[in-house]
Structure to design on (221 residues):
């Protein structure tokens, strides 16, 4: 009987898998576009750096920490009005991408900041002494020096988004998590539940292995 159940939901399983990839992809792109400059801003406005601005850093840091401190399931529900405003609906993978993006942006921003802090301060000081503009320092020194750490951050953020996307199924966000809840949990079908877990584990392993290998290639140290 479990085998019959799996064959029956195979089209739904295929659709759910691509919905998960869709949600994660959109959220990751938004996280990189917004989170990368946010992480750079947190770093360069810190004390002793070339764009030192403690009030700005404190405000940005407070907002980032505030969003990060909210459990994702609560954030998911709290952002339903914003999701409705942006996408016109509160269900489906596109709607879930709004909350996923909101959770991923501060997460990735802190990872970028941490990666930048690993850069030798002497390299930054040499660039400043050479008369490089702040934009040149960011573009030609900070980002190239921290690219391996940032890529590892992208990997970690992607894996977190896969986990968050599974939780989005609770409010009808679609994806593998939604399938696990509708067909596995509500119908008490352990075969379907285990299958969805295996799919998510395999997806995470592929992302982790690929990210680690690429990070090693880009590591200049």
């Amino acid at each position: 009987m479990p085998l019959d159940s799996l064959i029956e939901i195979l089209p739904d399983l295929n659709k759910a898998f691509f919905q998960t990839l869709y949600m994660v992809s959109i959220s990751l792109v938004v996280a990189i576009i917004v989170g990368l400059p946010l992480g750079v801003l947190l770093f360069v406005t810190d004390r002793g750096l070339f764009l030192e601005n403690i009030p700005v850093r404190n405000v940005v840091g407070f907002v980032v920490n505030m969003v990060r401190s909210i459990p994702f399931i609560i954030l998911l529900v709290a952002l339903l009005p914003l999701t409705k405003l942006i996408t016109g609906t509160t269900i489906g993978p596109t709607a879930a991408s709004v909350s996923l993006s909101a959770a991923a942006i501060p997460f990735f921003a802190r990872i970028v900041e941490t990666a930048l802090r690993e850069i030798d301060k002497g390299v930054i000081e040499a660039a400043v002494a050479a008369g490089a503009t702040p934009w040149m320092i960011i573009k030609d020194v900070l980002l190239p020096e921290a690219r391996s750490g940032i890529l590892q951050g992208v990997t970690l953020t992607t894996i977190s988004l896969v986990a968050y996307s599974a939780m989005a199924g609770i409010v009808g966000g679609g994806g593998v998590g939604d399938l696990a809840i509708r067909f596995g949990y509500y119908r008490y079908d352990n075969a379907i539940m285990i299958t969805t877990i295996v799919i998510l584990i395999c997806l995470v392993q592929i992302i982790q292995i690929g990210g680690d290998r690429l990070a090693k290639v880009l590591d200049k140290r």
